[in-house]
Write a structure and sequence with these properties.
With about 475 residues, this protein is an alpha+beta fold. Helix content is about 45%, strand content about 20%. The protein has helices at about 20-35, 50-80, 100-105, 140-155, 260-265, 270-305, 310-330, 340-370, 375-390, 395-405, 405-425, 435-440, 445-450, and strands at about 1-10, 10-20, 90-95, 110-120, 130-135, 160, 170-180, 185-195, 220-225, 240-250, 430-435. The strands form three sheets. Strands 6, 7, 8, 9 and 10 form a five-stranded antiparallel β-sheet that branches. The chain is elongated, with a radius of gyration of 33 Å. It is found in: Cytoplasm. Its main location: cytoplasm.
Length: about 475
């Protein structure tokens, strides 16, 4: 086999591979010899079929099989011999001329093909022991724990049927139908909806107008959607709601005690507080982790400058771009609404894609040198978490990961990355800094620029928008 490099431009490589006809013939004869004892042909005893006859009958199909095996197997061995790693699967090109293809299959011509690919760039890792980062830590105050415990208790509060007018804090059961310009709008209707007046679950001005109503009352109330409402077609518009009050219930006494804890399956109020504190600390810990990780990535970005394979950057950019456009569409927004243009956004997200690919290569090399491994058990846990997100579709999700090339790798990559970050934290100089929760939750400009548009929220009710995590890099 002869391998000739025909292109070496930056990270791009192209090779011409020639397998001489004599080598193809030798491999064909080996295949025929292996098959000789297994094939049954009329007129010949088993194992006595001449090779020349087998070649005449099966030679062309076996040669086609050989060609297919070579283009599947040879690229990997060629790359290994050259000491190169391809960024993506090499593109294989063969002759499209029917006459030349027939000559190859009949064993009368050399088999030639080309390999086009980009190499993973060679680069030296920076000494990460010189990195200095700050870990922001929040000491959860007892007051915040108590506030959260009160919310838990509020959700478990009992309500007793009430006669008379609804007041702030009462739970009302209503049917409602929302209209804009006299026409019902999607998401603006419900039946037997339960709402605690003063909970601020609905759009501003809605709940206040329920005060003073009695069971059986009907009323048309008018509200105005906020100018920045997530559903663009409703933002800033006046709407009416046809309300029918079906029941009113007054809140029972709110007490935080062992009895409340036991209704939640816990031993005591102290245990409830302990769990709530742990949950709050875990939530803050996730934010701390993301900000810590960003500092590491920023320093890796500053200390590693090299060209990234264009195909990897293209793929990453297309993934980001699809997400951005989908979220803009979902929210009825345009690039102009975000104070930018499509051209400027493309440029910004292209830079982000290049950064992600480059940092991905750096993290991969750090992890490999540290011998970071992802166990089958870790992959199984990750797969289980994915399956849980699609109740009722468990079988389809399992089949997807079994049959889709690269699907399991998509589970492995974030686990490998987080374990690599954990390894780096044992080497990097980390200083703890006590901060308030407001300081911890504050997004700096660089962090915000690495996030997609805000997620869509339900149109009729206000729901806290879940903060997007920094995208995996």
């Amino acid at each position: 086999m002869q391998v000739t490099e025909t292109l070496a431009e930056g990270l791009k490589r192209e090779l011409k591979v020639v397998v001489p006809v004599k080598d193809m013939e030798a491999q064909l004869n080996e295949k025929l010899a292996e098959a000789k004892g297994k094939m049954k042909i009329n007129g010949f005893r088993p194992g006595k079929v001449p090779i020349s006859h087998l070649k005449k009958v099966y030679g062309r199909s076996i040669m086609a099989q050989l060609v297919n095996e070579m283009i599947q197997e040879k690229p990997a061995s060629i790359l290994a011999e050259r000491g190169e790693k391809a960024a993506t699967q090499p593109e294989i090109s063969m002759t499209e001329d029917e006459k030349e293809a027939e000559e190859i299959l009949t064993g009368s011509a050399d088999f030639e093909f080309t390999m086009a690919y980009e190499v993973i760039p060679a680069f030296d890792l920076a000494d990460i022991s010189g990195f200095k980062i700050v870990r922001e830590v929040v000491d959860v105050p007892a007051e915040e724990v108590e506030e959260q415990v009160l919310r838990v208790a509020e959700n478990s509060r009992s309500y007793e049927p009430k006669k008379g007018k609804a007041a702030d804090g009462d739970k009302v059961t209503i049917d409602y139908l929302g209209k804009v310009d006299g026409e019902p709008f999607e998401g603006g209707a419900d039946q037997d909806a339960e709402l605690v007046i003063g909970s601020n679950r609905f759009i501003p001005g809605f709940e206040e107008q329920l005060v003073g109503l009695k069971a059986g009352d009907e009323k048309v109330i008018t509200v105005t959607f906020p100018a920045e409402y997530q559903a663009a077609h409703l933002a800033g518009k006046e709407a009416t709601f046809d309300i029918k009050v079906k029941a009113i219930a007054a809140p029972g006494e709110l007490e935080i005690n062992d009895e409340l804890a036991k209704t939640l399956g816990l031993d005591s109020a102290d245990k409830l507080r302990e769990i709530v504190r742990s949950q709050i600390e875990s939530q803050y810990g996730e934010v701390t982790r993301q900000k810590l990780k960003r500092q590491i990535l920023d320093q890796l970005d500053e200390t590693h400058k090299f060209d990234s394979p264009s195909k990897l950057v293209d793929a990453e950019f297309e993934s980001i771009w699809r997400q951005i456009n989908q979220e803009l569409s979902d929210n009825g927004k345009t690039f102009e609404d975000e104070d930018t243009t499509e051209e400027a956004a493309r440029e910004d997200y292209r830079k982000l894609a290049e950064r992600r690919v480059r940092l991905g290569l750096v993290l991969s090399k750090i992890g490999e040198e540290a011998n970071i491994q992802v166990s089958d058990e870790e992959l199984q846990r990750s797969l289980f978490e994915q399956v849980r997100k699609f109740p009722g579709q468990e079988k389809e999700i399992y089949e997807y990961f079994q049959k889709t090339p690269g699907a399991v790798a998509s589970l492995r990559a974030p686990i490998f990355e987080e374990k690599t970050i954990d390894h780096m934290l044992t080497v990097i100089d980390v200083t703890d800094k006590s901060v308030t929760k407001e300081e911890l939750m504050a997004d700096d400009e660089a962090e915000a620029s690495d996030k997609p548009a805000a997620k869509k929220k339900a149109p009729a009710k206000k729901k806290a928008a879940k903060k997007d995590d920094t995208a995996a890099e």
